[in-house]
Amino acid sequence: MRYLVSASEMKEYDNNTIERIGIPACVLMERAALGAVEIIEEHCGDKSGIQHALIMAGTGNNGGDGLAVARLLSEKGYKVEIWCVGDRDRASKQWKQQMEILKNYPVACTDSPTQERYGVLVDALFGIGLSRSVEGAFADAVDRFQSLVGWKLSIDIPSGIDTDTGKILGRAVSADATVTFGFCKRGLVLYPGCEYAGEIRTVDIGISERSFFHREPELYAYDEDIWALLPKRDNGGNKGTFGKALLVAGSINMAGAAVLAARACYRTGAGMVKVITSPENRIIVQQAVPEALFGTYEDLRAGMEWAGVTAIGPGLGKSKEAFACLKQVIQESRKPLLVDADGLNLLSEHRELFELLAAQGESGRVVLLTPHVGELARLLDWSVADCKADLMAAGNVLATELHAVVAAKDARTFICREVGDICVNLSGNNGMATAGSGDVLTGIIAALLAQGMEGFEAAAVGVYVHGRAGDRVAGEKSAYACTAGDVAEAIAVLS
Predict the structure, then answer these.
(1) DSSP one-letter code for 274
(2) CA 20 to 30 Å from 154, out of 16, 232, 342, 406?
């Protein structure tokens, strides 16, 4: 698991390390500089000749890190130039200490870069404390820095990227690599900030989980091996042991959604899968997924009694039959329920269903929803722009209203719940923005629920598995060639 911290969380952990644990700030700064220099050396160490380095330093502690980097590079024989941007009279205490030390080293200070090309360009302008738009002389400095030729390394986060959201605050440095300290910052992995960060290297400087003092970060992501996250298999089990999933999916001319969900469900370990769909889909489903049991809408009640989990929505349409199916699975069962696609559209158009589902969630039923941004906007009666602007907040609002788990899907998917931390998924790629991809995700999560996984964990692990499968397909075929069917089959060969 990988923690992703906000600016306020990181400042708290930094203060805890200094004031409660007792590691001096100057020690943390020195360790940070050493970590940055190590990464620079990895890039430049095998290059012949004297390397020229430019450090663009602000006057806060991020700039202080940059000054310490300048000193250490000078000691290693680099020709170092410091470009200070900002009011030195208002510089931080740590910055002033580092500048005093630098007076004893052959480091040049300048008000503007003296060359157009450098071996190394270090961005130490703002760090994580920036909260307003980059304007005036600072904007000019970012533009000038960007125009220079050379390998660019940002300290902690590229200057101009919002630490909490990844948004560009006016303009931002586009780095080849970013060295960040203690824990990865949210803005380094959220769009568009992740596209400015380059390679992200997290360096341990002494700020660790010990610094939390029982206040863990709100946001995390999975980065584990897939098999460490999936439900354990019983060597003495049978098809019943590994769960029974009911998929209410597909309609006339939409059999593909049911097929994709069923395939993914089996590939993720479900022992038995039954598809409830339009009778016209019988031959297609039974030929495409011969392992699956088949039923029509008349078999829904028996199917719910048989299964351990019901998933409804992929390709279902919004007909009277679809509405009746959704109402029935909400009213007549207390088993885990996953709602996706047209199931979500029906919820947004029929408030009575929304309220029925909220009552089920409040009573303790495991309810999961997997809306993309458009579906989420309709469910909340928000604009799509407002949902995209703060997808995590939107997911939290819906999770609270429905007492449910919500996987708010976009380029970064946030898995939210009424109370507790939030998981953001970092796997996947743009090739997965293709028809049927959501149906595959429904099948994956349904399989995990059927095998007894808790609701929030099933959603978080399911989205991660889905993304990893998509990454494998993109790696083998390219993102352009990725199809939902490929993703469903790739689950079988994940490692």
Answers:
(1) E
(2) 16
218 burial level (CB within 10 Å; 0-12, 13-18, 19+): middle
Q: Say how far apart CA 138 and CA 140 lie, in whole Å.
A: 5
CA atoms within 13 A on the CB side of 249: 34
**In residues, how long is the chain?**
495
| 8 A C-beta contact, residue 310 and residue 270 | no
Per the CB < 8 A criterion, the answer to whether 447 and 270 are in contact is yes
Tens digits of per-residue pLDDT, 179-229?
A: 999 999 999 999 999 999 999 999 999 999 999 999 999 999 999 999 899
Q: Which two tokens stand for residue 121?
A: 């360009």
pTM beyond 0.90: the answer is yes
> Which helix H or strand E contains 194, and what residues bound it?
helix 194-197
CA dist 89 → 58, 59, 85, 189, 306 (Å): 12, 9, 12, 34, 73
Contact 177, 154 (CB under 8 A): yes
Q: Each residue of 151-177: b (16+ CB within 10 Å) or e? A: bbbbbbbbbbbbbbbbbbbebbbbbeb
**CB neighbours (10 Å) of residue 373?**
19
CB atoms closer than 10 angstroms to residue 108 = 13
CA pair distance 376, 390, nearest whole angstrom: 12
**Residue owning tokens 């170092």:** 80
Under 8 Å between Cβ of 344 and 379: yes
Tens digits of per-residue pLDDT, 256-315? 999 999 999 999 999 999 999 999 999 999 999 999 999 999 999 999 999 999 999 999
Q: Residue 124: CB partners within 8 Å, gap ≥ 6?
A: 55, 56, 57, 58, 62, 63, 65, 66, 67, 69, 155
Pairing status of strand 199-203 against strand 184-185: unpaired
Question: Measured at the alpha carbon of residue 77, what is the angle toward residues 76 and 82, in degrees to the nearest 5?
Answer: 95
For residue 477, is pLDDT > 90?
yes
Phi-psi region of 410 (alpha: psi -120 to 50; beta: other; left: phi over 0): beta
Rounded distance, CA 196 to CA 39, Å?
Answer: 18
Could you tell me how far CA 467 lies from the centroid of its own chain? Answer: 10
Neighbour-count burial of 116, counting CB atoms closer than 10 A to its CB (0-12 exposed, 13-18 middle, 19+ buried):
exposed
Q: Which residue has the tokens 């595959």?
A: 440
CA distance 406 to 414: 8
DSSP symbols for 383-434:
-HHHHHHTHHHHHHHHHHHHTSEEEEBSSSEEEE-SSS-EEEE----GGG-S
Q: Of the candidates 415, 320, 438, which has an alpha carbon nearest to the alpha carbon of residue 368?
A: 415
The DSSP result for 355-376, as a single string, is HHHHHHHHTT--EEE--BHHHH
Half-sphere exposure of 464 (CA within 13 A, CB side): 25
Q: Check residue 186 and report its DSSP letter.
A: G
